[in-house]
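Side project, low priority. Logging it here so it doesn't get lost.
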Amino acid sequence: MTTMTSARRDQPKSASRVWPPHAPQQLEATPELLAELADASARLETATPEEIITWAHERFAPYLTMATAFGPEGCVILSMLAKVAPDTYVFNLDTGYQFQQTLDLRDRIAEKYGIEVDMLQPELSVPEYEALHGGPLYKTDPNQCCFDRKIKVLRQAAQGKHAWMSGIRRDQSADRAQAAIVGWDKKFNLVKVSPLANWSKSDIWNRILAEDVPYNPLHDQGYPSIGCWPCTRAILHGETDERAGRWSGTGKTECGLHTIQESDGSGI
């Protein structure tokens, strides 16, 4: 079983966030719920991200959560949460391979907005995990590495929750182009809310600059998309895909959190 622990490095010393209470029961994808989500998604298609977040909070709190990798989109959502739903539980899937700049950004977010993102870790530390597999698994089987150190952790984090928010945009990739504003996430048995689905990259950065939202300094060094340091590089001159620096040379473009499920055609 995946064990979730608090962040291990340089966390703020202010009051820690409390894991929200578990829901009386897990949501089920009944026809009634799916119809409600489809109606809500259609109505919210032209809503602002703040309005979408407010709806999600009113509908699902205290069983609403957010996963963030501290990308530009996640930082923008955190700035919005501070205004409209500051009690939302937010977590990061801390694989043990994150850039130090990413870990430092967590502290800057906490200082500016008072939102302390919980760092959820796999059961095995990086040294234990690499020893088990005879070396870094990200070199030989990055899909399994992502599954073990991210997907499994999110699945446990989803227990007792009804809905989760993410910062995906439709213009980021072919998988994400099909994202609904609100929909059922079959992989994690949660309602998935994507407040920024309709926003563009320029929308994100206009908000960051206008409101001085903290962001990862690696973005200023040619890293438009940032994940684990072994599997992330700066993009090269002429590369237009903002995720070109992720798992470069492997054909892999997603960790699995936001891919379409081939078995049933649904997206998360």
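Brief comment: Strands lie at 64-67, 89-93, 118-120, 163-165, 182-185, 190-193.
Revisit when time allows.
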